[in-house]
């Protein structure tokens, strides 16, 4: 069985680690590959290659870096089908959804091709008589990205193009559950002309993450994954003196107001809750129905959930594929069990859904709960599966308070026709990304992505202008030439004039 390798110094290698873990095709439940689990020697090898590459890469003009990114952009577009097929084979999501993922990642590459513009500093002539000031942004050095299973192309592309365009050497540690796409991405960047050592992949599990966090040569860590691990990565990385952005899990609520367009709202919620089998950090997992809309909302949602087309990701007519692993399937089933035990109304039960011919695949049907309350596990925990919880709130303020009391604050949405309510919501809700009649308000590449509260540890959001700031250090330079020097030694705090 083939072993999915690291990409170190531009070459595929199984490295020094002898441990391998299984990679599944979630639709069949079969092991298709093993992945090399790297050790500290493998990380050291990547660091050595990055250290060799960094001085020249940092000195490479941003326009030259951008030209490589332009070629990488074209190659990603040309290999869109191959990348999507790899995602579907290891993650399970439907191919059309996988292509959407690649496209959203590609947009960050496109944004990063503006490196010469993005790295422009500011210049102020005459901050004082004969004195000028300007700023510049310089790369950090060797930086690392640690990514989750649910977007094996898009999330690495939130990081890599930004890190590389700004002159850093980037080491990616992808999820061990779907690690192949990372290898293809690194190969594409090399084919585009990226010098070896600038974009590397080290495969591994938590030991590799901890090796990265402890390695003194790594200046910054960009992490995306679940909240407990994000918290750990942030605490450990910053304690070791690194710059860290750690994006965590989510429990995204949508408020459904009585004045909304109910049919369109139901369509939006179905896509947002069950697309990619609910394995999206921006999935809507809680619908808060305000006042009299609840009964009609639940009835219409239930009709859709019962008729979801579930099957292999390779068949584009399916709306939902399998979950990523058998272990995750058991966890999602267990959480649905807990909802029943804790008194929620299970309106649609997807637990025993079987896809004919794929009985060993990690499939589950869509589930819909009504009368969910804050004390239930299905409310408190991120299920990360195709389960939508409906809560009932008597009025808008109660619904808003539910969201603001949640420890998570990634995305949220409101469905209403009333501009005043929408404005009050966007102004007062405590979350990082907000949709008004938009269920999954993922910011475009030229904005930045990130949540609040336990959904993000650190100061910088991902990609866009925040990505440039995260991967660079600023210098402020003040200059004066002999003609501008008006007196001898000055002993007072300089002031302008
Ligand atoms: P995860 O936290 O299990 O894994 C993320 C990464 O951390 C992986 O590379 C994994 O190898 C590593 N890891 C796992 N356990 C570790 C440990 N104990 N110590 C150190 N490293 C460890 O997440 P996942 O299951 O791969 O992905 C799903 C999670 O990611 C969900 O919680 C989802 O909400 C979140 N996510 C968040 C965003 C966001 O932008 N906020 C985006 C995508 C996914």
Automatic annotation (TrEMBL):
Keyword NAD assigned: yes
Molecular function GO terms recorded: methylmalonate-semialdehyde dehydrogenase (acylating, NAD) activity
Cross-referenced Gene3D superfamilies: Aldehyde Dehydrogenase, Chain A, domain 1 (3.40.605.10), Aldehyde Dehydrogenase, Chain A, domain 2 (3.40.309.10)
Pfam families: Aldedh (PF00171)
Annotated EC: 1.2.1.27
Keywords for the protein's UniProt record, in alphabetical order: NAD, Oxidoreductase
Enzyme class name: oxidoreductase
Chain ranges of the Aldehyde dehydrogenase domain: 16-477
NCBIfam families (UniProt xref): MMSDH
UniProt-recorded name of the protein: methylmalonate-semialdehyde dehydrogenase (CoA acylating)
Species assigned in the record: Acetobacter fallax
Classification of source organism: Bacteria, Pseudomonadati, Pseudomonadota, Alphaproteobacteria, Acetobacterales
């Amino acid at each position: 069985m083939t072993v999915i390798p690291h990409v170190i110094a531009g070459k595929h290698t199984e490295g020094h680690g002898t441990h391998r873990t299984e990679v599944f095709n979630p639709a069949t439940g079969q092991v298709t590959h093993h992945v090399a689990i790297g050790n500290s020697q493998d990380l050291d090898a990547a660091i050595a290659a990055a250290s060799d590459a960094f001085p020249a890469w940092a000195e490479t003009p941003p326009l030259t870096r951008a030209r490589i990114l332009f070629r990488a952009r074209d190659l990603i577009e040309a290999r869109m089908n191959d990348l999507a097929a790899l995602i579907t084979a290891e993650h399970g999501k439907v191919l059309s959804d996988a292509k959407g993922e690649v496209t959203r990642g590609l947009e960050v590459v496109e944004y990063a091709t503006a490196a010469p513009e993005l790295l422009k500093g500011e210049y102020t002539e005459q901050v004082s008589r004969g004195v000028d000031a300007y700023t510049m942004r310089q790369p950090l050095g060797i930086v690392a990205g640690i990514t989750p299973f649910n977007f094996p192309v898009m999330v690495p592309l939130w990081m890599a193009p930004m890190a590389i365009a700004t002159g850093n050497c980037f080491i990616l540690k992808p999820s061990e559950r779907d690690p192949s796409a990372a290898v293809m991405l690194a190969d594409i960047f090399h084919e585009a002309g990226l010098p070896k050592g600038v974009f590397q992949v080290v495969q591994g599990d938590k030991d590799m993450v901890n090796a990265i966090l402890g390695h003194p040569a790594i200046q910054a860590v960009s992490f995306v994954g679940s909240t407990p691990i994000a918290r750990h990565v942030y605490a450990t990385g910053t304690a070791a003196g690194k710059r860290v952005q750690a994006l965590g899990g989510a429990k995204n609520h949508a408020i459904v107001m009585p004045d909304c367009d109910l049919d369109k709202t139901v369509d939006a919620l179905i896509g947002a809750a069950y697309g990619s089998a609910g394995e999206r950090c921006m999935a809507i997992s809680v619908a808060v129905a305000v006042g009299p809309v609840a009964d009609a909302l639940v009835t219409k949602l239930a009709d859709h959930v019962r008729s979801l087309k579930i099957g292999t990701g390779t068949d584009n007519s399916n709306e939902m594929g399998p979950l990523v692993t058998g272990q995750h399937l058991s966890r999602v089933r267990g959480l649905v069990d807990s909802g029943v035990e804790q008194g929620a109304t299970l309106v649609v039960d997807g637990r025993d859904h079987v896809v004919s011919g794929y009985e060993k695949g990690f499939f589950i049907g869509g589930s819909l709960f009504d009368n969910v309350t804050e004390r239930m596990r299905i409310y408190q925990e991120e299920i990360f599966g195709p389960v939508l919880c409906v809560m009932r709130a008597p009025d808008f303020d109660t619904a808003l308070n539910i969201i603001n009391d949640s420890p998570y604050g990634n995305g949220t949405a409101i469905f209403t026709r009333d501009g005043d309510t929408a404005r009050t919501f966007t102004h007062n809700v405590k979350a990082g990304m907000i949709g008004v009649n938009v269920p999954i308000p993922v910011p475009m590449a030229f904005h930045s992505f990130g949540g609040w509260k336990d959904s993000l540890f650190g100061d910088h959001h991902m990609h866009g202008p925040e990505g440039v700031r995260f991967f660079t250090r600023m210098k402020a330079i003040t200059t004066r030439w002999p003609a501008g020097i008006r007196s001898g030694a000055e002993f007072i705090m300089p002031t302008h004039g």
